[in-house]
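User: Okay, second chain of the day. Same drill as before: sequence in, structure tokens out.
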Amino acid sequence: MTLVLGAAYTLWLVKRVVFGPVASPRVAALQDLNGREYIVMTALALAVLAVGVWPAPLLKVMQPTIQHLVSQALTTKL
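Assistant: Same drill. Structure tokens below.
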């Protein structure tokens, strides 16, 4: 029941926020992204996509630190 209510509230909220009228003149005066911002957003999106498709280089860098953390967590403090 809570899941259904949460989904219904989320849909209602998205309808009001995304598709509703702009209430503030300050928000209505905002402009879209310029070319430089599109380039930065595209680079970040491609980086996220690359890590999602091929995470091996990132995991290889993190592996020694994670192994050390796990070994410390497994040793007893007694």
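The helical segments are 2-19, 25-28, 35-53, 56-74.

User: Thanks, on to the next one.
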